[in-house]
Amino acid sequence: MTAEYFLDTNVVAYAASARSEDAAKTAIARRLLLADSVGTSAQVLQEFFVVATRKFQPPLSIAAAELYLDALERLPVAPLTTGLVHLAIRIQERYQLSYWDAAILAAAKELAATVVYSEDLNDGQAYDGVTVINPFRPGATLPA
C-alpha cells in the first residue's frame, strides 16, 4: 500500500465543504482526491469525522460523514500502529513539531509519499524526504 501524495485533514475537509466562501479550496481539494497515487491515514479519517460533524456550519450528519469516509477508504490509508507512533515521536523530536503534525508526516512516510498536501504545516518544508505543499497557495504544484 503506497501513495505518492498524502492528504492532510484540512484538504479532506475542504473537499466536503458546502460553504460558498470555501468554493475555490473545495475545487482544489476535490481535484486532489481524484488524482492518482493519493493516500491518507486513519488519523485523518478520525479528524475529518470530528470536524465534519462538529465544526462544519452546518455540520454534516453522521450518515453523510460516513459516506465521505466510505469514499476515502478506497484510498491507501496508513493504519495507526505502534510503529507509526514511535516514528511520529522521532519526527516530533527532530523537527520540534506537535505530535499530531508529526503523526501526519509519519503516516505519509509509511505510505512512501513524497508530498503532503496541507495548509497547516510549513509550505515547502522537507521533513525526512517528505515535502509539504500548501495546495491552496497560488501557483502550488498539484498532480495532473
UniProtKB/TrEMBL annotation:
Pfam families: PIN. Residues 5-120 form the PIN domain. The keyword rRNA processing does not apply. The keyword Isomerase does not apply. One of its GO terms (molecular function) is RNA nuclease activity. Keywords: Endonuclease, Hydrolase, Metal-binding, Nuclease, Toxin-antitoxin system. HAMAP family: VapC_Nob1. This is tRNA(fMet)-specific endonuclease VapC. It comes from mine drainage metagenome.
